[in-house]
Amino acid sequence: MRCCCALWPKILLLDFFLPARVSVPTPLRRPDASTSVGPVAARPPAPELRNPPADYTYDGSFEGLLTVLFRVYDRKSAPNSIQPEGAAQGGLFTQPVAIDTDEVLATRTWDGLLRFMPEPARARLYHIFLSEDPERELLIFRYADMALRAGRDISDNYADATVRRMQRLAQQLFREKHRMEAFVRFEKAQDGLFHATIEPDFDVLPLIASHFTKRYADQRWLIFDKKRRYGLHYDLHQTTIVEFETAGPTPRRGEVSATVLDEREPLFKILWQAYFDHVNIPERKKVKLHQRQMPKRYWKYLSEKQPRERRFEPIKNKRGPATPPSLQQGETDR
């Protein structure tokens, strides 16, 4: 595959909405009351975290975080902090506890969450992880711990600060997802690959993969997240995650070199800009509303917001106000 940014992809399989290598659980089935025999077994109490709190580190993956959640209850030691290995800051007299990712324990934890929360609430934990909030790990732990101790769904308990915080983050994440689905602009390369560069505030690529796979199923494309150095690649059969290793200087603003673009790409850019210029109505311009719906941070990757190579000239097909027939007759009589 030709790479448009002189970068070399390393392909990994993508699971659209669930983290990679975490199995999809089988829905739980409750037995009918008519077939149950004997008293219903009581739910075992939540384990007490009686040992001194500790600082935990992990590899930064969602599977790693799920492993940390398992080890917290295994060690019976609540977390003071949960940080990725590269960003961990140990205490003066204590060293953080490094947790190695265990896919078996991660899958066991992910499946076990359904015992005390519905699937939409469990999916929100993954969405909060994608938000990249500085406190996302502790938010996920607190939410899971509260649900475990309550033994029921707590997603509607907006009296709790953790639930409110997670709700706001989820709203911001999906607002960014919606904008990325609207503001992606592709450029065609010489090998027929359509390439687009984005730089979203949140890690939304796993959430937009399904949308672009369905919408552009008849063409090969690559969406590159410049901030996080990975992307989505569709090869007409499946969508995969590609990670990039820099093989040279990064192009300015993530632009694709003109030497690898299709020779007709500049023409399509001019046509796209001309379309926007002609549908624009200057008399109805509302700058504040426009910037609120399309923030300036997205403009550098939008073709219609780039400098014009040709001066815009409106089509001269507008007629002046029609003269009433009575006035035309008066002019004739004179």
Provide a concise account of the structure shown.
The chain has 334 residues and is an alpha/beta fold.
The outline comes out as elongated
> Which runs of at least 5 residues are low in confidence (pLDDT < 50)?
1-41
Helix content: 25-40%
State the strand order across the main sheet: 1-9-8-7-6-5
Q: What's the average pLDDT?
A: 81
Instruction: Please give the alpha-carbon distance between the first and last residues.
Output: 78 Å
Strand content: 5-15%
Number of helices: 9
Major beta-sheet overview: 6 strands, mixed
Radius of gyration: 28 Å
Structural class: alpha/beta
Please count the beta strands (DSSP E, at least 2 residues each): 9
* Element-by-element helix/strand order: EEHEEHHHHEEHEEEHHH
Describe the 3D structure:
The chain has 334 residues and is α/β, with parallel strands linked by helices. The protein is 35% helix and 15% strand. The protein is built from nine helices and nine strands. The protein has helices at 62-75, 103-112, 119-130, 136-150, 161-183, 205-215, 265-279, 287-293, 325-333, and strands at 7-13, 51-58, 77-84, 97-98, 187-188, 194-198, 221-225, 230-234, 239-246. The strands form two sheets. It has a six-stranded mixed sheet with strand order 1-9-8-7-6-5, covered by helices on one side. A three-stranded parallel sheet has the order 3-2-4, covered by helices on one side. The longest helix has 23 residues, at 161-183. The N and C termini lie far apart (78 Å). The model is unreliable at 1-41 (pLDDT under 50).
